[in-house]
Design brief:
Blueprint (H helix, E strand, L loop, with lengths): L1 H4 L2 H26 L3 H27 L16 H25 L4 H13 L4
Helix pairs in contact: 2-3
Length: 125
Amino acid sequence: EIDEVLSPREHLEFVRRWNVISFKLERSKHYISLSNFDQSLYYMQSAHHDLRSIKKLVGAAVSNLSPMMRCEKELAPNSGASKTTRVLALFALVVAYAVVMSQTHEDSPLWRLCASRRKRHKIKF
C-alpha cells in the first residue's frame, strides 16, 4: 500500500493531489461535453502538473524501499514441485551418463548412432 511507504506528510500531499486530479479530470470531461476545448485543455494541463508531482512523491518513496523475499508457507517435502525436480534431475543425470559413456566407449549404441550420422553428413570432429 502506498500509505505504508510514504511519511504522514507525504501521504497527505498524495491524497490531496489525487483528489485534485480526479476533480480536474471530471471538469475536463464536462468541458469536452460542452465542446469548450480550451477550458478542457486548461484542466488537462493542470492535472498533468499534479500528476508530475505525484510521480515525484512516489519515486522518492520507491527509492527508500529495499527488496525482501520470504516464503508464506513452506512446501511439504513430498510436494509436486519437489517430485518434478527430482524426476528432471534424474533424467539429466541419465542423459549426462549416456553422453559420457558414449564418448568413452566406441561400441555403445549412442556412439554408433552419432558415427553413422557423421558418415552420412560428412561431419568431422
